[in-house]
Amino acid sequence: MTTPQTIYCANPGAEFQEDRADLLSVMAATLDRGTYILGGEVSAFEREFAAFVGGGDCIGVANGTDAIVYALKGLGLQPGDEVVTVSHTAVATVAAIEMIGAEPVFADIDATTRCMCPKSLRSVLSPRVKAIVVVHIYGQPAQVDEIVALASEWGIPVIEDCAQAHGAMIGSRRVGSIGHISAFSFYPTKNLGALGDGGGIVVRDDTALAERIRILRQYGWKERYVSLVAGGNSRLDEVQAAILRYRLAKLNERNKRRQGVANLYNEAFIGLPITLPTEIVGTTHVYHQYVIESEERDALKEHLAKVGVIAALHYPLAVHQQPAYEGRIRGGGSLPTTEALYRRLLSLPVYPQLTPEQVEQVTRGVRSYWGK
Length: 372
Ligand SMILES: Cc1ncc(COP(=O)(O)O)c(C=O)c1O
Known about the structure:
The chain is an alpha/beta fold. About 40% of the residues lie in helices and about 15% in strands.
């Protein structure tokens, strides 16, 4: 009998191996052209990615955190303004808000979508709130239409944090095309991942806003060496853009493979005392993570490690529970649904290159914990 391999939640190396021959020639051709930052590959990727999301303008930036930072800057957020988001997110979402001197405020999540709860959002809105950052966590679309409707009552913009949801849909619309502006990460483990850092902003239909952000990402330049406004440096490089163009063409198919793994898990786990991720009717989940909930989460995680399945916590602590944020964010004292989820959540391996044998190893591992 062969020893089972260790299976991790994500495996960017396996994706590289699948693409290896093609990507090496894509990278070589890009390097041979002799432009390395913000050149033809970046502009072509920006056009193609904007079209994929649903139109508008895309601005490539250095990473997903900066995508939120520059979206907020472009919208004119000022130090001291409040921005409502969720505590159930990568810490990057909240870090980005504080990086511009704004103040995060937490709304609770909905237990089914695990994304921002519109009712909880309503309870924290105030005249100081100048933007909302809604996160499509794990690849599951949030209730953006309800959130945009509520935001428009207050005249404030909605930023979609799509770092975990490239290609996810609400009806026939892709996430990133519903709020006023959206932010993407292309970190290597993402559904659309580069081989280094990368990020992108999509502006739905406001060319002036897109132009402002484009200028801000490079020292406030429209024309080289002339700073019209005080900007910064957050540029996407040519090699990452070329890799992203190659992978964008494969994104739908790779998301389908993630959904295929999720379907196999859903079938195999019927009857077990765990809560499975919910596919909300009318939306398409792209399974950046496949997250179950169990009262016996820690024991199950330990059991899985013994059979070579490294399940993970996304995340071990919600943002308001992290030492850097504890006790100082408005709304952080009243997040019962978020806190209940954090006691129970567990991410199982999901990525397009998982083999049927590996899926079987995971399902056998989970089932065997309950003696099935
Ligand atoms: C929800 C969310 N927002 C923002 C980010 C930040 O992206 P990056 O790591 O590219 O800065 C990430 C990625 O970690 C994320 O998962």
